[in-house]
Amino acid sequence: MAKSPEEEHPKKAIGWAARDSSGVLSPFKFSRRHEIVGVVTEVGSKVQKFKVGDKVGVGCMVGSCGSCDNCSHNLENYCPKYVLTYGGKYHDGTITYGGYSDFMVTGEGFVIHIPDNIPLDGAAPLLCAGITTYSPLRHYGLDKPGLHVGVVGLGGLGHVAVKFAKAFGVRVTVISTSPNKKEEAIKSLKADAFLVSREQDQLKAAMGTMDGIIDTVSAVHPLLPLIGLLKCDGKLVMVGLPEKPFELPITPLVLGRKIIAGSCIGGIEETQEMIDFAAKHNITVDNDLRQSWKHGKACLPPRNSLPCFRGTQGEHNKLETWRHNSCFGDCNIVNCELGL
């Protein structure tokens, strides 16, 4: 039987997303973080997908009902009863506690293989930022070579959206309020073009040129200029989570047969597909690797408009992880020492 979550292992590491530091999605007191990587140290008697020594990861969810229509179509992320990795509640009432701990025990159905050629610190944020941008590119058919896709925002989500789109052979235009991100977009991420969203002349010149747009921004911003960039039948896909509602212009949608849609991470099968694709194309998340908290004080990322992308928190060269205070029995659990 796998060890209980209370048995000890050395601390290692996690990645964080911007929303992690707010806790707005949870009614519980909890330890945050949901981009978790590590190495399997023990498996349950009926585990078939993993063995001791495998590099693995856990993303935004650790459970679902397993029987609804969404679950039966590998869309656990849209299950009405899905369980968040932190701030969630299992069906037995156990609360999930996120990414700050020494190790974790979880069902193998929510564990992802991490290919050997992906470093753990670069892989951890793929389990949220990666799948959040990969899934809409695939689902909405924006992964076809030769298409023109816009990416709004060049933060943790936006920069990895550019990487995936370029790997698909798509022409990419980054759309940002910050002119100082142009060099990063063009030279480092190899975007094909850059638009400053406040510059009306730039937007006007690009009107009607894009097959789709992935909007990663979590602040409220005008949608009409973005809709204008789309071709007929173009798709504007929202993956950010603004706290206030948008004003939605209907007329340009009707006259151009355009679509505004949303997307939320991806199912486990698609997340594994994303990780394997990232390994094949050497895609990782650009991150800011920081030491873990000392004396009860966490090391948090700066809040500014610089393209520092994603945070990965570690202790020296080790990655920080999380503890889950629940055990599933010995039939299908994977016990992981999380980190390098």
From TrEMBL:
GO terms for molecular function: metal ion binding; oxidoreductase activity, acting on the CH-OH group of donors, NAD or NADP as acceptor. Residues 31-116 form the Alcohol dehydrogenase-like N-terminal domain. CDD domains: CAD1. Keywords: Metal-binding, Oxidoreductase, Zinc. SUPFAM superfamilies: GroES-like, NAD(P)-binding Rossmann-fold domains. It holds the Pfam family ADH_zinc_N. It comes from the Eukaryota. Residues 156-279 form the Alcohol dehydrogenase-like C-terminal domain. InterPro entries: ADH-like_C (IPR013149), ADH-like_N (IPR013154), CAD-like (IPR047109), GroES-like_sf (IPR011032), NAD(P)-bd_dom_sf (IPR036291). Belongs to the zinc-containing alcohol dehydrogenase family. This is Putative mannitol dehydrogenase.
